[in-house]
Amino acid sequence: MMQFHLTTQPSRERVLAYYNALVKANVPPSEHTYKLLLDAYAVLPPLNLPAMEKVFDDLCYDRSARVQGTHWASLITAYGLYANDVEKAIATFDSIATHRRAPVNLRNEPVVWEAILHVVAQKGTVEQMEQIKQRMVESGAKATAYVYNVLIAGYARAGMIDKAREVFASMGDSVTGVAAPNNHPQLKTSSGHAKPSTMTPEPTGVVYREPSTYEAMIRAELSVGSREGAEEVLRMMEARRYPVAVFMRARYLLDDPSVSLIDGPLETRH
Known about the structure:
There is one protein chain. By secondary structure, the protein is mainly α. It is 57% helix and 0% strand. The protein has helices spanning 4-8, 12-24, 31-42, 49-61, 69-82, 86-95, 110-123, 126-139, 145-157, 161-169, 211-223, 227-239, 244-255. Helix 5 packs antiparallel against helix 6 (86-95). The protein is globular and about 55 Å long.
């Protein structure tokens, strides 16, 4: 219910009401509960950074919960996208390496890189985006379609459509009809528990497109006035035989001129 009132029917009041019900029932918060609380203060208006930081401090002092990449992603996104403080977002990302509750390899989690790339792609410069991208490559972190989506949008926003096309063309396609499981090394249920692995063998270095990748590329093509290019990407997506509802969402981008051409919905990993 907390997640429902965070994403489907947004209401910080209702999120907190269900959290308080958990507290009253002596149910300890899980890692996922902390994630939802962080986003309740960071995503739902009005932005409340002190409250968000208090939740993060509580998480850090809770020895029964692990500080995960999704928690850091919430902080990075809040500072960079919602508070418009790119430098604070970068500093927060950099602080992971020395934080007392951060595992040694936490900064290699794709979701953390997705968050900082999203910030610099939307609010920073192309130079910053490429610097972060290079740092990710050098760190050995596994890229995902969501990282590439951000790069496509960032290059398109800067008018560098050839670079966006280059990123899109460098990707592969997974099993026909489904989103690529390779982008989700550890899927979770709505309660935050890990699902059985859905990983499949993949060639080294290949990043598979998601439906959202096609949407990102369609937006990029439309942003430079290339309807022909957008239609070609849509035809490629149609050939993947995704569910009709998924395909029609992308089709809608070409049919409705009021749709933002660059900024799609910010994906929050739960």
